[in-house]
Amino acid sequence: MLRKRGMDLVTLTDHDSIGGAEELRRYKDFFVSEEVTCRMPSGTEVHVGVYDLTERQHCDISRRRNDLTRLLAYLSEQHLFFAVNHVFSGLTGRREADDFDYFADYFPAVEARNGQVLPGANQHAAVFARRQGKVQVAGSDAHALVSVGTTYTEVPGARDKDEFLAGLRAGYGRLGGESGSYWKLTRDIFLLCCEMMREDRWTILFAPLLALVPAGVAINYINDLGFVRRWGAAINALNLSNPSFVSPQQATLPVRQKQPA
Fold it and tell me: What are the boundaries of each domain within the chain?
């Protein structure tokens, strides 16, 4: 499926785990990555995408993820490429102004397009990355097969994983694909639940709860819209409806390998 969507290189970023990716490591066009849940000095949580890591590095990261200073030192020491994910979305809960200082000072890359969050959140992330001189990456954040590879990062001319990652570090990445939407997330949750019911038949007992999914997604997006407006205005101090706004495409460096996350 990913081949048909034009993907030449693939990675999987499970939450705080590489179990699902390990069995795919044997493929030459695949590399193991992880989305690490980290504790900020302010007490908030943030998701950090760490790319091309070993099992030993995963274990070391797991021991450090609640101490951001130690984690950042380790990632730098190991020369691992990493990015802060969906910074203008409320997916990980509350945010503090000091968090953005850490993002600006210590993170080499920013996820500027996420396939499940609001377009406004992605737009603000792209502006933040451009103003701070950060590398920009994109990922589908898919939890259902239908959304896998619909958002991706390209590095023109990269022929393998090493060239792809070197191109990312040098700022030659291009963002591709779509942002999230109400209908997309609602569809994915329905598909995920149906797959769960197919694999574990007893979970069919919860089928009536599916009727609550559209309302739950709507509430989530309304809350996230408020999060985007609050922190977008506070950090980027701009109005995305202004004609002078720089879009994510314009903000991306002019820097064809694709990498869904």
Answer: 10-180+230-259, 183-226
Residue 210 φ then ψ, to 5°: -60, -25
pLDDT at position 77, please? 97
- Dihedral angle over CA of 8, 12, 13, 14, nearest 10: 170
pLDDT exceeds cutoff 70 at 254: no
pLDDT in tens, 39-78: 999 999 999 999 999 999 999 999 999 999 999 999 999 9
Superfamily of domain 10-180+230-259: Metal-dependent hydrolases (3.20.20.140)
